[in-house]
Amino acid sequence: MKINNVKITILPGKLSECEADAYVLPYYSYHVNPDYERREVELAGARGVRLFIEKRLRHQIERRPLSLGDVFITDSLGGKSRKLVNIICRDEDEELAKLAIYRGMLYMFCHSEEHGLKKVAMVPLCVSDGLKIKEFTEIFKKFMERCPEPHSIEEIVVLCKDEAQANELKALCQE
To answer: pTM score, two decimals?
Structure first.
């Protein structure tokens, strides 16, 4: 399917198995135990994840924690992607998380050309934190229908935890 000239591919699978210019990873602003998305990508060779975690911890120690919606595009330093799009979007407040996802995607699109991003891979952001797949899809579609030009992103691959979640996301995207 295409939304606003960007090919959207929705599949079940692991983020680390997808070859892409960048992986999009969700984070809390403060340190918590690793979520499965970050852990899986890091174990598959993306050493840049550790560097971002250390940056976030330094900010926290210096009493300047990162804010919801902050985005840092960094080198992955291994694995099947060149870059990591680190979005601070994980939060217990679903409305704040949705705003942070929108803001993070906006930043990614606005800076895609300078980082050479054509194909990005992501999971349904914040769904593992309690955001419903329907809510993620609403914010994703809303952003994709309004995404700013110019940008270099040609394809987004959304990797879901299983076939059922992938089918639900596909159906919601086509509504």
So the answer is: 0.93
